[in-house]
């Protein structure tokens, strides 16, 4: 017995076989029909579409044989892939290559074999279309023509299968690009809306300060005090814009939130200091009731953005009142962060659509402030992204409480 040799270009041949992605795939009706037709026309009980891997032969389609694969070195197809045309073995017992081959001496007791090489357009042989019989014989010219035609049809099906897959991948990439473009447009629109929502009010306040100064109705001491307030106002606005840019960058890059332990007391203290110039213009008092040692599991910049939006809304609908922020550890492993104001509250008709982006309402504040109605919608979106949620309680004429529920951060020492 002579073992099947490897092809001179074996490495490249294997790469070509892998490129077609047909090895060890499910059986397919188109290929099954080809082996049935080859077996019928060549009048043989066995026919296979055989693909040659590095150590194995595997049948993409088969009839008359139970095995799904076999050893390559004892295979007839391992010899056939080295031929340029049909390799025909009329009687394996008289052929020195196969007379003592286990496939001849034992099942399936091959006597006759004819295999046509399946050659890719690039010139690499992937396997064979073969017909097998248990008795010695030869193919007629017509049967050989049929075997060649069917073998070429197998390669055309391989090519079509590959092109269909490539087309599917291309279509998927196009759809992904279209989806990304749509998401990018939506994100850009949202960023613009947020900037309008968060920056319009502070800029209007700065403009009002400048107008008061230009009217020259203030004393020098009042102007100095006003300029200090203006300086703080601008610092707060710049900080707000910085956070907006960071948040917009996260959305556009599709990055996940960076969840970490955040000391809530420190965050709220700094935030209220930044917001004090805004609230003092409307003579609102800020009260911080957040526990200093309270830690939550959150993205710090995003949480700061959320709290700024809620407190900004509270300030918008409150005048000469109180805005407080408090924290409470819940039994379910969450921290409840509540922002309560003594402002004008909301009617039930408004509360019903607070979190509906298509029905959001922008109400004027107590000083005719404008907004986009996005603040709470964004807060809800971010809370859910941090495994939390938002609740709102409000009564018209009595004020509003917005509660953010965020997972508590367990101490690393516990």
UniProtKB/TrEMBL annotation:
The keyword ATP-binding does not apply. Gene3D superfamilies: 1.10.287.130, 3.30.450.40, Histidine kinase-like ATPase, C-terminal domain (3.30.565.10). PANTHER family: GAF DOMAIN-CONTAINING PROTEIN (PTHR43102:SF2), SLR1143 PROTEIN (PTHR43102). It catalyses: ATP + protein L-histidine = ADP + protein N-phospho-L-histidine. Pfam families: GAF, HATPase_c. Residues 194-410 form the Histidine kinase domain. Keywords: Kinase, Transferase. Transmembrane segments: none annotated. The keyword Kinase applies. One of its GO terms (molecular function) is phosphorelay sensor kinase activity. This is histidine kinase. It comes from Sediminibacterium goheungense. The lineage of its organism: Bacteria, Pseudomonadati, Bacteroidota, Chitinophagia, Chitinophagales. InterPro entries: GAF, GAF-like_dom_sf, HATPase_C_sf, HATPase_dom, His_kinase_dom, HisK_dim/P_sf, Sig_transdc_His_kin-like_C. Its EC number is 2.7.13.3.
């Amino acid at each position: 017995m002579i073992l099947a040799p490897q092809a001179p270009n074996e490495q490249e041949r294997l790469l070509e076989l892998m490129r077609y992605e047909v090895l060890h795939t499910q059986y397919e009706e188109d290929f099954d029909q080809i082996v049935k037709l080859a077996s019928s026309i060549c009048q043989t009980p066995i026919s296979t579409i055989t693909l040659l891997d590095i150590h194995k032969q595997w049948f993409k389609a088969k009839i008359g044989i139970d095995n799904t694969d076999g050893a390559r070195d004892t295979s007839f197809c391992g010899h056939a892939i080295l031929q340029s045309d049909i390799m025909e073995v009329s009687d394996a017992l008289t052929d020195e290559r196969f007379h003592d081959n286990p496939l001849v001496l034992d099942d399936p007791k091959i006597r006759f074999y004819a295999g046509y090489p399946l050659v890719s357009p690039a010139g690499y042989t992937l396997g064979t279309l073969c017909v097998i019989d248990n008795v010695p014989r030869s193919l007629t010219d017509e049967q050989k023509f049929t075997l060649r035609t069917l073998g070429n049809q197998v390669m055309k099906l391989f090519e079509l299968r590959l092109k269909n897959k490539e087309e599917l991948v291309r279509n998927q990439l196009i759809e992904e690009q279209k989806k990304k473009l749509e998401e990018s447009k939506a994100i850009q629109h949202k960023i613009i809306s947020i900037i309008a929502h968060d920056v319009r009010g502070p800029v209007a306040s700065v403009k009002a300060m400048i107008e008061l100064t230009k009217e020259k109705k203030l004393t020098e001491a009042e102007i100095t005090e006003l300029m200090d307030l203006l300086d703080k106002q601008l610092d707060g606005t710049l900080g707000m814009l910085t956070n907006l840019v960071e948040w917009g960058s996260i959305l556009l890059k599709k990055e996940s939130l960076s969840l970490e332990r955040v000391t809530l007391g420190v965050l709220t203290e700094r935030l209220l200091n930044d917001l004090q110039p805004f609230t003092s213009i409307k003579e609102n008092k800020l009260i911080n009731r957040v526990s200093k040692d309270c830690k939550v599991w959150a993205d710090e910049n995003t949480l700061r953005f959320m709290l700024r939006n809620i407190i900004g809304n509270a300030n918008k609908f409150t005048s000469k009142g109180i805005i407080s922020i408090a924290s409470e550890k819940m039994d379910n492993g969450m921290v409840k962060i509540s922002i309560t104001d003594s402002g004008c509250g909301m009617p039930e008709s408004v509360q019903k659509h607070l979190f509906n982006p298509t029905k959001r309402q922008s109400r004027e504040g107590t000083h005719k402030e404008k907004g986009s109605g996005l603040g709470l919608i964004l807060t809800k979106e971010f809370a859910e992204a941090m495994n939390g949620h938002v609740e709102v309680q409000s009564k018209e004429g009595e004020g509003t409480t917005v509660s953010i529920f965020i997972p508590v951060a367990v101490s690393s020492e516990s």
